[in-house]
Amino acid sequence: MRSLIQNKIAESKGQDIDLAPLLDVVFILLIFFIVTTVFVKETGVDVDKPTAVSSQNLQKSVLMIAITSSGEVMYGGTNIGIQGIRSTLMQAVKSEQRPLIIQADKQVKTELLVKVIDQAKLAGLSDISLATMKE
After folding, report:
1. DSSP states along 1-63
2. How many other CB atoms are found less than 10 A from the CB of residue 52?
3. Closest Cα to residue 46, out of 80, 72, 83, 82?
């Protein structure tokens, strides 16, 4: 028969640290960071933006429209054209008013840019900005 000390030593060698509470905490933190992260919906195209000295950073919760050098108007990776701007933006600001950022290529004609801004204003947006690169 083994002594009490030998039994205790044998039991302590067989014990492992329970990692279940640690994993629970890690998953809760992961869910917290996923839920609280703000995602910016990109336009889906690369635009060669003009530069400006007065460029500044804007808030994260914005709407973004891109105008490519070929004249395509893109929202969320889809070509919506001039005709789709008003309905798309009205749907996007239905729940809350958000600012609009227009990413226009350097080669875009002013007439097309004015039409996009005009459709955005007709959709009810008042805070409209142009994206530029800082000089």
Report:
1. ---HHHHHHHHHHT-----HHHHHHHHHHHHHHHHHPPPP---SS---PPEETT-----SS-E
2. 13
3. 72
Give the other-Cβ count within 10 Å of 74's Cβ: 20
Average pLDDT over residues 88-105: 87
Pick from 21-30, 51-60, 94-103: least confident:
51-60
Q: What is the pTM of this model?
A: 0.62
Four-residue CA torsion sign, 128, 79, 109, 42? positive
Please identify which residue in the block is written with the tokens 């891109």: 66
**Which residues are paired to 10 by β-bridges?**
none
pLDDT in tens, 48-82: 667 676 666 666 678 889 999 898 999 888 899 88
Q: Transcribe 60-124 into DSSP letters.
A: SS-EEEEE-TTS-EEETTEE-TTTTHHHHHHHHTSSS---EEEEE-TT--HHHHHHHHHHHHHTT
Largest CA distance in the chain: 97
